[in-house]
């Protein structure tokens, strides 16, 4: 590949001086080369030193790569001019230069200046050796602090707090309220002053009054309404004018124009009441279709547009049905809860900050906020330190500036003399990290407001555009330009996509070719129906088609440009499959590729910690730390590493039955045990002098773990997992932790909390790569398959009861407890629309990143259900450019690609399938596309798969009517439980408690408030009965002082105070005075709360059961005692009975239970049960059961 010379635009970016410079660099435009060239221009022409500059990147990998590029460029220049002593002096400086991430810069600044952070009155402060919390540690700490804050919140509950807890924070536990607080807190961390934001918004909600039109919510919603009004006014007008002079004008055109005029007031509404009136004025006259034109493609298109307009009006109706007075009433209703939420978040923020100071640690957002506090005064002026740091650097160079947030931007400004020597480079169209709180509007504001560099005067902020792409062939650039010039706009996408923003071809080194057209493959998948009972699923069809097309490319030797600039046949490594969110889809694609003998690799974060190799290694670490832990010790002994059999472990256990298993090992003299103990002692000795990462490698080498687990299925992946664990240990120690115990404790705590750190592992190595679009950013590939185009845009951000936006504040649901309803406030609707459009703009940028990854070939694969109807709808709205509101209605990438594509001449097959005319055909001169349609059912069989004779003859096989009358001969056995409790024959909870897996009838448990919110109403009847049974279990039959016995049980903590107060003392006293109690006192042998488990013939439960079937019976007998006549079984009942008739009826209910108790006791005790008795405590009656 020939050496690239600087273009005129690149040269300008390298040489321009005199003010803050923004370089908007399109994908593949060589922005890193420009940054390096600019740095060396300073070094060679101005004789600056490399360490006179602060160079900021956004990942450690990018910082390391940039440093290596600078070092390589320095070496090359020294080879050209070895006599240059100034260049030679840079050799050491390049490795001392400040080329780092924002986090690294802030950390270094804080460690040097923590003494400046101490505030008067604060008990704790950071010291230079503070620890940086990783995200998982920070989560656990936040949870712990929030639990304490919520305890105080409930103790001091006021009216607003109660409303918050009962409405927006209501649930089975505190989790809903915890999530609200944490989400509000986290969303504010990109704000330069979160405390000020919380205080400002709290003031707004405390004074929520006035006119709705004065709120920012009304302004946002009115903008939405005007946009929609203008859109349909224009769409209907264009459609109506298109019929002028034709057969459809009278029945369609005139009515379209009339409807268009009725949308005009809505498009111009300046206040809420005007918008409400305008909606009532919308007109939709009845359309009249000329005879014989019902199926005409133009009629179908116009009808689709008409229905869309009517649907949009219906969607606006519920919102505009709310008057401005009602809107304010809803906001005022929720104002106390919002004030309480903001106060609670502020309290949590303060408590969290104090706890971090106490622990001498900081999280990632702390570093940025604290660094900003060191550099900038409250009034925005630079501090003394800020002026010193700014004076240290000749220029501040920031790469990937589009991913900056408000705090970072304030830091850059503070260290660059108010931005006067700030050089920023990035591409806002590739800003795809809003979920990490990146704010692309910072870049966009500068892009719009800065003066073009050629027109800027000295000191004026200026911009330079780099639009030439040196990565991709012209066909790729034409495809990306075609899509984005038609779907990206200021109204929907936050920016225009004009000539300046377009990608311009610069890769002149590519040999000329004619086989690089962009391909679009539509796969029509089918839902299950009477005509098609076994359709191929969409994902499977998409995966198998993709694998088939890749196989074709490899078999035909599709040429790609090699490293030397010549063409060579493509290899699997040249191909990537990009998806919005691969997840479980990767497995389907991997399987399809395997069917075609195509190797592949992908990253997966499956259940890493449950894999045998990792679980065994963690158990090893636990016993190296403390061998007196039975579970990990036995796990290690049973593992393939040592291979002890269950029989051998049982033998070892018999050596010492009382102590822990380690004592049993010490007591055993076997050679295998001695060898294990010797190995364990050696590892424990080594652990004393090694960090965790080194210890892991020592264990791997000593015990040959990579070899043992590498010999298993998927051995390569297992070995990668072991390496991944060492990387996690390295990260753990780099964050300030030390010691094996700390590593194990932290990891176990995270695993138990469901927050185990994600450890990425390779799902294979080499071959076709599969990755998410986010993962592909910054990479390039010869051939790209863009799949999963039907992945719906996420709406999970809107699932929370309160939305948060940095400019609009909070948007809650309104919850009416009296009417038991919830509905969105106008604030929430405004925030939802704002966030939705921001998310859609982010999705557009993600699609841009995907379409600019390929170098030579782009293949788009869109598999969808109901293709014909979907294409009809999209074709009716298709246009070049697509109207912004149509783009805003898109649900996935597939919609956005098809809307302009359907207007291209090459898309005729798609329009034919839809049976609809597009609004107008594209007439541009960009490179042609190739468009294909496939039937999903064509991919039902794996290539080369053997089809059974049964499947081949399936259609010829006659249906056997006898199948309709078939009855399973063992149906009765399916209803027999394998395990049964006496309770199920009628009884109480304790029997159920001991039978974990016993068959039982499911029931619905009513929802209840958390205990802290319940009114005190005492114990339920069931709870009082349980308390009485507890007393009967311990009751001394010789002691008639029942109150004294109950008090003793309370003091021994066998009863709670509430249970003790609920015990029916008179009933127990009556029992002690009864004849039954006297017989129990005189008995030779007696037992209470007697648990049993016995295997019984199933016929004892169901006489119709098979003779060989058995059921396991479990239960607890209240009491049995032995007399000369035999065993007497007693069951105590706390049922509410008053009359003799009540007693008799209830006694009959328990007949089956007592029979089961008797049967069990006879088998266990091998003695006859001669008497069965029920004692009803409330009535004081003994009932004999025959």
Keywords:
1186 residues, alpha/beta, eight-stranded mixed sheet, seven-stranded parallel sheet, 47 helices
Structure description:
The protein has 1186 residues and is an alpha/beta fold. It is 48% helix and 14% strand. It contains 47 helices and 30 strands. An 8-stranded mixed beta sheet has the order 17-16-18-15-19-23-12-24. The protein has a 7-stranded parallel beta sheet with strand order 3-2-6-7-1-9-8, with helices on both faces. A hairpin with a 3-residue loop joins strand 20 and strand 21. Helix 11 runs antiparallel to helix 14 and helix 28 runs antiparallel to helix 30. The longest helix is centred in the first third of the chain and has 35 residues. It is globular and about 115 Å long. The relative contact order is 0.08.
Largest sheet: 8 strands, mixed
First-to-last CA distance: 101 Å
Class from helix and strand fractions: alpha/beta
Give the overall pLDDT as a whole number: 87
């Amino acid at each position: 590949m020939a050496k690239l010379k600087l273009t005129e635009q690149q040269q300008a970016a390298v040489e321009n001086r005199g003010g803050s410079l923004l370089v908007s660099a399109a994908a593949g435009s060589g922005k890193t080369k420009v940054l390096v060239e600019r740095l060396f221009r300073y070094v060679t022409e101005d004789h600056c030193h490399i360490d006179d500059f602060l160079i900021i990147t956004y990942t450690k990998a990018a910082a390391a790569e940039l440093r290596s590029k600078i070092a390589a460029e320095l070496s090359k220049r020294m080879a050209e001019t070895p006599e240059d002593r100034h260049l030679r002096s840079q050799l050491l400086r390049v490795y001392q230069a400040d080329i780092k991430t924002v986090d690294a810069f802030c950390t270094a600044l804080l460690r040097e200046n923590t003494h400046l952070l101490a505030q008067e009155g604060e008990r704790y402060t950071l010291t230079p050796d503070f620890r940086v919390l990783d995200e998982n540690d920070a989560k656990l700490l936040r949870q712990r602090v929030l639990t304490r804050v919520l305890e105080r919140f409930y103790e001091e509950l006021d009216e607003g707090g109660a409303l918050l807890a009962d409405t927006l924070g209501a649930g089975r536990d505190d989790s809903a309220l915890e999530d609200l607080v944490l989400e509000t807190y986290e969303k504010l961390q990109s704000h330069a002053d979160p405390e000020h934001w919380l205080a400002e918004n709290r003031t707004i909600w405390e004074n929520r009054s006035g006119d709705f039109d004065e709120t920012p919510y009304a302004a946002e919603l009115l903008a939405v309404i005007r946009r929609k009004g203008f859109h349909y006014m224009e769409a209907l007008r264009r459609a109506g004018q298109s019929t002028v002079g034709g057969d459809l004008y009278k029945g369609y055109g005139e009515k379209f124009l009339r409807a268009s005029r009725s949308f005009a007031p809505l498009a111009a509404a300046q206040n809420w009441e005007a918008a409400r009136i305008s909606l009532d004025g919308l007109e939709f006259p009845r359309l009249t279709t000329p005879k014989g034109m019902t199926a005409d493609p133009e009629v179908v298109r116009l009808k689709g547009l008409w229905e869309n307009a009517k649907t949009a009006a219906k969607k606006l109706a519920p919102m505009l049905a709310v008057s401005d007075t009602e809107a304010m009433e809803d906001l005022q209703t929720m104002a106390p809860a919002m004030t309480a939420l903001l106060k609670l978040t502020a309290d949590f923020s303060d408590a969290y900050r104090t706890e971090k100071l106490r622990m001498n640690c900081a999280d990632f957002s702390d570093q940025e906020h604290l660094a900003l506090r060191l550099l900038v005064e409250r009034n925005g002026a630079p501090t003394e330190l800020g002026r010193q740091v700014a004076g240290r650097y000749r220029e501040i160079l920031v790469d990937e500036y589009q991913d900056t947030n408000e705090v970072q931007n304030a830091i850059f400004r503070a260290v660059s003399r108010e931005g006067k020597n700030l050089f920023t480079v990035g591409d806002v169209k590739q800003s795809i990290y809003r979920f990490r709180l990146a704010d692309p509007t910072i870049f966009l504001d500068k892009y719009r407001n800065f003066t073009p560099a050629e027109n800027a005067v000295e000191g004026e902020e200026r911009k330079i555009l780099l639009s030439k792409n040196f990565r991709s062939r012209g066909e790729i650039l034409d495809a990306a330009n075609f899509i984005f010039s038609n779907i990206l706009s200021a109204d929907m996408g936050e920016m225009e996509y004009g000539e300046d923003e377009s990608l311009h071809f610069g890769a002149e080194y590519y040999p000329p070719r004619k086989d690089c057209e962009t391909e679009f493959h539509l796969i029509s998948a089918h839902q299950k129906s009477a005509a098609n009972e076994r359709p191929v699923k969409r994902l499977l069809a998409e995966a198998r088609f993709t694998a088939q097309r890749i196989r074709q490319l490899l078999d035909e030797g599709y040429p790609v440009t090699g490293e030397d600039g010549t063409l060579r046949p493509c290899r699997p490594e040249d191909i990537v499959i990009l998806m919005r969110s691969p997840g479980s889809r990767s497995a389907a694609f991997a399987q399809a590729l395997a069917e075609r003998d195509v190797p592949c690799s992908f990253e997966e974060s499956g259940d890493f910690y449950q894999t045998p190799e990792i679980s065994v290694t963690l158990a090893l670490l636990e016993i190296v730390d403390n061998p007196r832990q039975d579970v990990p010790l036995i796990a290690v002994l049973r593992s393939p590493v040592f291979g002890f059999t269950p029989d051998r472990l049982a033998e070892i256990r018999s050596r010492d039955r009382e102590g822990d298993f380690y004592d049993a090992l010490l007591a055993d003299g076997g050679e295998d045990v001695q060898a294990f103990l010797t190995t364990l002692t050696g590892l424990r000795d080594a652990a004393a002098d090694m960090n965790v990462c080194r210890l892991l490698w020592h264990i791997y080498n000593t015990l040959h773990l990579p070899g043992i687990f590498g010999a298993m299925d998927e051995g390569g992946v297992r070995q990668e997992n072991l390496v991944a664990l060492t990387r996690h240990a390295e990260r753990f120690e780099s964050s300030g932790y030390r010691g094996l115990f700390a590593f194990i404790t932290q990891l176990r705590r995270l695993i138990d909390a469901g927050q185990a750190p994600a450890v990425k592992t390779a799902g294979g190595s080499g071959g076709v790569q599969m990755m998410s679009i986010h993962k592909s950013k910054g990479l390039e590939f010869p051939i790209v398959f863009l799949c999963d185009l039907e992945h719906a845009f996420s709406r999970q951000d809107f699932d929370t009861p309160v939305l948060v936006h940095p400019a609009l504040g909070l948007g809650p649901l309104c919850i009416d407890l009296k009417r038991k309803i919830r509905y969105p406030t106008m604030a929430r609707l405004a925030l939802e629309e704002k966030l939705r459009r921001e998310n859609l703009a982010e999705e557009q940028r993600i699609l841009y990143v995907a379409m600019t990854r390929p170098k030579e070939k782009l293949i788009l694969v869109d598999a969808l259900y109901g293709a014909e109807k979907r294409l009809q709808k999209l074709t009716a709205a298709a246009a070049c450019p697509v109207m912004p509101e149509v783009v805003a209605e898109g649900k996935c990438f597939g919609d956005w690609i098809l809307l302009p594509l359907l207007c291209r001449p090459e898309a005729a097959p798609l329009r034919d399938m839809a049976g609809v005319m597009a609004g107008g055909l594209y007439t541009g001169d960009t490179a042609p596309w190739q468009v294909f349609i496939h039937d999903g059912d064509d991919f039902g069989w794996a290539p080369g798969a053997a089809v059974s004779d049964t499947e081949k003859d399936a259609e010829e096989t006659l249906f056997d009517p006898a199948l309709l009358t078939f009855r399973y001969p063992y149906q009765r056995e399916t209803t027999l439980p394998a395990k049964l409790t006496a309770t199920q024959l009628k009884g109480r909870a304790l029997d159920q408690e001991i039978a974990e897996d016993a068959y039982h009838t499911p029931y619905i448990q009513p929802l209840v408030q958390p205990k802290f919110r319940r009114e005190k109403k005492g114990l339920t009847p069931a709870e009082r009965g349980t308390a009485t049974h507890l007393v009967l279990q311990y009751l001394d039959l010789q002691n008639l002082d029942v109150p004294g016995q109950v008090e003793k049980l309370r003091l021994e903590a066998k009863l709670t105070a509430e249970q003790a107060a609920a015990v029916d003392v008179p009933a127990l006293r009556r029992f002690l005075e009864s004849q039954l109690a006297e017989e129990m006192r005189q008995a030779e042998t007696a037992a209470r709360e007697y648990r049993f488990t016995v295997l019984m013939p199933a016929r004892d439960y169901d006489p119709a059961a098979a003779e060989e079937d058995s059921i396991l019976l479990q239960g607890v007998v209240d009491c049995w005692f032995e007399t000369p006549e035999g065993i007497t079984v007693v069951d105590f009942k706390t049922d509410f009975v008053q009359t003799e008739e009540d007693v008799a009826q209830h006694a009959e209910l328990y007949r089956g239970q007592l029979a089961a108790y008797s049967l069990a006791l006879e088998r266990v005790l091998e003695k006859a049960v001669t008497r069965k008795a029920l004692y009803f405590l409330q009535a004081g009656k003994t009932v004999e059961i025959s």
